[in-house]
Specification:
Strand content: over 45%
Shape: globular
Oligomer: single chain
Distance between the termini: 28 Å
Helix content: under 10%
Largest sheet: 10 strands, antiparallel
Radius of gyration: 14 Å
Amino acid sequence: MLIFLFSTCKQEVIDPYENSDTGISAIVDGRGWVAREYVSNLYGKGIIIVGTSENKEIIRLILIDRAELTYPLDNADSAFAIYKKSKNDVYDYVSTNHEEAGGEITIIENNTLDSLISGTFSFVAYQSETNKLVKVRDGVFKDIPYQKHP
C-alpha cells in the first residue's frame, strides 16, 4: 500500500528489487532496512521522500529545499525525519523532539533534468509516548523520481 501525502500529486511506485540502481535503504537499530515501495512529493522548494519496507516500517524524510547541501535534523523548520515501526503505529519516532535526537540528510545530486534526487541520511529519532529512541544510520536514497510542476 502506498502512502499518499497529497491527494492531488501523481504517485509513482518503484520496486527496488527490480531495479537495484534506485531505492532507499538504511540500517535501523542494527538491522538492514530496504524500502519495498517509495514515493516523493514536492512542496514549494522542499521535498518529502517516503519509503515503506516489506514489513511496513516507514522512513519519511522532509526537507524545505532540494539544494545539494547537508541539512541538520535538529530543527523542524529546515528538515526532519520520521520513523514508524508499522503503518498502523499511532506514534511516530521524530528526529527533533529529544536531546539525543537529530542527524542529517545530505542531498548529493538533484538531477532537475530527469527529476531524480539522491543522497544520504542518518538520524536518531525519539518516540515520546514510549520514551524510546531508534537509530537509523548509513541511509541512502538513490534516483528517487519526483514530479515536475509547471
